[in-house]
Automatic annotation (TrEMBL):
Keywords: Membrane, Transmembrane, Transmembrane helix. GO terms for cellular component: plasma membrane. InterPro entries: Bact_polysacc_biosynth/exp. Signal peptide: none annotated. It comes from the Bacteria. GO terms for molecular function: protein tyrosine kinase activity. The chain crosses the membrane at residues 34-52, 326-347. This is Lipopolysaccharide biosynthesis protein.
Length: 359
């Protein structure tokens, strides 16, 4: 029975916990110089990091978006319906609400902006993606990590290879998640704010300009795609009917010239000319209706055209944010203090455990 009882674990009382806590405090007080020294080292490391960290330049563009449709076209709706024209349909709800904000984060929009060229201060042209790679020295990293010796992002090529696409996807994802910020300062207004925050001032401004232009142009083209297609079809029909009408007029003139002084007693001689007159009248009526419908289609296109007006665009010098040295000093101090305390506690506990086993 005594053997069994001796194998049972010892109960830990509240008094034992308090005593161990006091022992730990006394041990840490005896090592206060080491802890403060570690904190001082952390402060030095923190201020050094703050000094070495590059400032971030933020390029901001704000614009107002107004894509109201319908308006005063109700008076034309019934008239256009006879010609099979839907002047109130447009592209429907393709880009309703805040969808344009999601466009800015899409890989395709960011890729198009990155592959745009800019004029450098020295007059030379450079792709924005090459500027990004150069500033972050990514080629060196790719060479060491991925064994990529050379890489070219020339957009004149028909398509990129797998390696190029993979790198562009990675860069686009980084920009969308860490560099680009899209917001609406006031939810009640259609004002959109686009921020690009990067360590290179030139890239921040130029990429902001290119991205805003690329997305807004895509947005307008997509919103007006159906109305523009309808307008193009009507233009072709008008040109075609106009050509037929001109030919019919020419045939009437030729027929009249063939029988300039037709005998009024012989009506059969006027039949060819009268037939061509019928063609002219029919073509004239069709042409008049198509021209009317063409004008309605132009009104529809103008109504579908969203208004995107830039309010503020980024200009030099951009706003610059630098590291808060005080914050890094304090943060480095406390991180190193906590780390040193943890290490000392683990070391002291393991030392006592070893001494207890040896005893």
């Amino acid at each position: 029975m005594d053997k069994i009882n001796s194998s049972e674990p010892e109960e830990i009382s509240v008094k034992d916990i308090i005593l161990k806590y006091q022992d730990g405090l006394r041990f840490l007080k005896s090592k206060i110089k080491i802890i403060l020294l570690c904190g001082a080292v952390g402060s030095v490391v923190g201020v050094g990091y703050a000094i070495m960290k590059k400032p971030v330049y933020t390029a901001t563009c704000t614009f107002v978006l107004d894509d109201n449709r319908g308006g005063g076209l109700g008076q034309y709706a019934s008239l256009a319906a006879f010609a099979g024209i839907d002047i109130a349909g447009g592209t429907g709800g393709v880009f309703e609400g805040d969808n344009i904000m999601e466009l800015y984060k899409s890989r395709n929009m960011i890729k198009q902006a990155l592959l745009s060229s800019i004029v450098m201060p020295d007059g030379k042209k450079q792709l924005l993606i090459d500027r990004y790679v150069s500033v972050l020295n990514l080629k060196k990293r790719w060479k060491e990590k991925d064994h990529i010796e050379t890489i070219n992002f020339n957009p004149s090529a028909d398509k990129f290879n797998r390696k190029q696409d993979s790198l562009i996807i990675d860069i686009s994802s980084t920009i969308a998640n860490k560099i680009l910020n899209i917001s609406k300062p006031d939810k009640k207004l259609n004002v959109v704010k686009v921020d690009i925050a990067f360590v290179d001032e030139l890239f921040s401004k130029e990429f902001n300009d290119k991205l805003v232009a690329t997305v807004n142009d895509f947005y307008i083209k997509t919103k007006t795609k159906k109305a523009q297609k309808n307008l193009d079809i009507l233009k072709n029909q008008v040109d075609s009917v106009k050509g037929i009408l001109n030919q019919s007029l020419g045939r009437v003139a030729s027929s009249n010239d063939a029988t300039p002084n037709a005998n009024p007693l012989r009506s059969i001689l006027n039949v060819p000319s009268q037939r061509k007159q019928v063609d002219v009248q029919a073509s004239s009526s069709i042409y008049a209706e198509l021209v009317k419908n063409l004008e309605l289609a132009k009104i529809s296109l103008r109504q579908e055209m969203p208004l995107i007006q830039v309010i503020d665009e980024p200009i030099y010098p951009l706003s610059k944010s630098t590291s808060n040295k005080i914050l890094y000093i304090v943060g480095g101090f406390f991180l190193m203090v906590l780390a040193s305390v943890f290490i000392l506690i683990v070391w002291g506990t393991s030392k006592k455990s070893k001494e207890f086993k040896d005893a």
